[in-house]
Amino acid sequence: MSDDFELDTTDLSRRMDGAIANLRTEFASLRTGRASGSMLEPVMVDAYGSMTPINQVGTVNVPEPRMVTINVWDKGLVGKVEKAIRESGLGINPQLNGTIIMLPIPELNEERRRELTKVAGNYAENARVSIRNLRRDGMDQIKKAKANGMSEDDQKFWESEVQDLTDAHIKKVDEALEGKQEEIMQV
Fold this sequence. Notes:
Blueprint: H1 9-28, E1 44-47, E2 50-53, E3 58-64, E4 67-72, H2 78-86, E5 95-97, E6 100-104, H3 110-147, H4 152-185
Antiparallel strand pairs: 1-2, 3-4, 4-6, 5-6
Helix pairs in contact: 1-3, 1-4, 3-4
Function: Responsible for the release of ribosomes from messenger RNA at the termination of protein biosynthesis. May increase the efficiency of translation by recycling ribosomes from one round of translation to another.
Main location: cytoplasm
Family: Belongs to the RRF family.
């Protein structure tokens, strides 16, 4: 019975990769002084009675390195989109031009850069916690199999596999964080 145990490491790895993908999405939303359409992803607009992402109420473009434009499709939503951006905490002051909202990206000062590196660190720590939780799930499966008669050698083998997977993914998180912090601090 114990010889049948096979931990699905590919599923565990896929789920850990999901935590890293989520981290990269969160990093993309951090403002680094350069314009990026992804920095607006967390901003939601109260449109048609529900909270809607900005990219579903207009076209987001980056015409130049320090400018993002949003061409709002419904004239009635221009004010709501502008208000959502002002209240988002991005530190951007929208400028209206008909149905086009222009977002000039100001230079980041040293203090704001340090704040953003701390936010990036928090995002990375959340990703590490997710990966550790997945590690715990894998270890729990191994413990259950041990209780059902798995040999100690098999238990050590699978625990080693899960730990190696965890270490590799945490290393990826650390590398992503280091890269993002360098990008943020770059003047």
